[in-house]
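Final paragraph of the annual report: two paired records, presented back to back.
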Amino acid sequence: MIFELSEDELWFPEPELADEDGLLAIGGDLSAERLILAYQCGIFPWFSEETPILWYAPHQRFVLLPNQLKISKSMHKLLNSEKFSITFDTAFSDVIKSCASISRLDQDGTWITSDMQEAYINLYKLGIAHSVEVWEHDQLVGGLYGIHINSVFCGESMFSKVSNASKAALIWLCQNKTYKLIDCQVHTSHLESLGAGFISMDQYLNFLNADKNNEWESLN
């Protein structure tokens, strides 16, 4: 059953009620309050210009544990070469716009609509959304952005204009921030090569709600 949300009432159905593909609800809005509630419940928006707002809660979550990150020898060499300089939260708007405009294999258009960009830039201003920027010769060549909920970073999108730039951003995020889990949302072979894998929704919600007393370690 797909639930229909209105803009007048702030709520979400339980994530376990999502259909087989993870689609849980339709409608509502992209207000900061609704987006924050969604992520706190393990739900995220994913839709296009041609559809209404769609809310997903996949039964299997594709995630990366930073302490299980796999870095190849060639990537170690690249990072040590100082080819890239990496910053945090210095060009959020540029990162999300680049994620929206970059061409992707087997994908027409983008799900990062203008309304989505505006909504997440607002979350950035509230200190909830964050970005990692990868620079080469003072040019923005890669990066990623996402939402910080408790000790989980919910990755929304990444981009590369040169080889390995987005991978460098993700590695930096794993090594330089205190997130216990990176939610990758959608499976890709690129992320799997870095050590990402699937966990159940129940496990994911346990991570999401774990306190700061290293409670999350018992979930490994």
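The closing record of the year follows.
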Amino acid sequence: PVDLYVGGAEHAVLHLLYSRFWHMVLYDRGVVSTPEPFHKLVNQGMILGENGEKMSKSRGNVVNPDDIVREYGADALRLYEMFMGPLPDSKPWNMEGVAGVRNFLGRVWRLMIDDRAEEIVIAAEVTDTTPTAEQLRVTHATIKAVTEDIDKLSFNTAIARMMEFVNFFTKETARPRECMETLVLLVSPFAPHLAEELWSALGHPDTLAYEPWPAFDEKHLATDSVDIVVQISGKV
């Protein structure tokens, strides 16, 4: 059977008729070996127009993805659709959101690339130094969170985790190559074109498509100190 089937709720009747029903018939006839065609079914939400209504030519609220790709790039379109909200929810299109996601991709690029140079040059902050304990904690916490969010199809929160990573390392005077390469691999399912460019710029002659997914190490997730707020008799 199929591991994961993603379909729109508005087509549920036909989906079930043409797939699940006929699969059951074939199973009863002994043609297929499983009683169900899917291990898991997820109904994704609908992308609505900016006015919150279903997109249609008559309403004049249709968004042409080709126009978005021309102005912002395919990665921005792809990333924004995953960042809009939970996958099962319907959500309205917002051009300001597209611009915001495009700005994030620019920040990822500038985290590793010196955009003041005429050619693609690695930023001086990217070094071959050993990451600090805090840098390792942030990196491995991000790997863990993004991995778990992808498994849950929570793409919007996975992207938010990577935004936190970028915010942290933007303030760092030294950005270890090890941590930067990890971010590129985490970004690659969401913004594959940007990730391939960065992977190449970091000195890898081959595509990252066959690179193993990063693994987190629990020993780097612990913190040395924790702030605990105590309140006694109404006073902090």
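Residues 228 and 234 are 16 Å apart (CA to CA). This concludes the annual technical report; the extension proposal builds directly on these records.
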